[in-house]
UniProtKB/TrEMBL annotation:
Pfam family, one: PQ-loop
Subcellular location: Membrane
Keywords: Membrane, Transmembrane, Transmembrane helix
InterPro entries given in the database record: PQ-loop_rpt, SemiSWEET
Cited Gene3D superfamilies: 1.20.1280.290
Name listed for the protein in its UniProt record: SemiSWEET transporter
Membrane-spanning ranges: 6-23, 35-55, 61-82
Length: 86
């Protein structure tokens, strides 16, 4: 398999991986089972991948990870809105 195709497929799958979770949270308006820490660590790691993509001038890395950062920031905002205060 061509390494570029492999990278593009991996980027797409990684980028969309949290969309089902986001849809579930938005439908149920419930974020009780989500970990803020996990989402923050994930956003940090994805942001570093975006930075790395800029350093290497690799548009697929930049785009796929930037999209994933946006999805996870929306998920984090949903956490703040929908988590019940204890």
């Amino acid at each position: 398999m061509n390494e570029n195709i492999l990278g593009i497929i991996a980027g797409i799958l990684t980028s969309i991986s949290m969309i089902p979770q986001l849809v579930k949270v938005l439908k149920e308006k419930n974020a009780e089972d989500l970990s803020w820490t996990m989402i923050l660590v994930l956003i940090s790691g994805l942001s570093l991948w975006v930075w790395y993509g800029f350093i290497k001038n690799e548009l697929p890395i930049i785009l796929s990870n930037a999209f994933a950062v946006v999805v996870n920031i929306i998920l984090l905002i949903c956490c703040m809105i929908y988590k019940k205060k204890k």
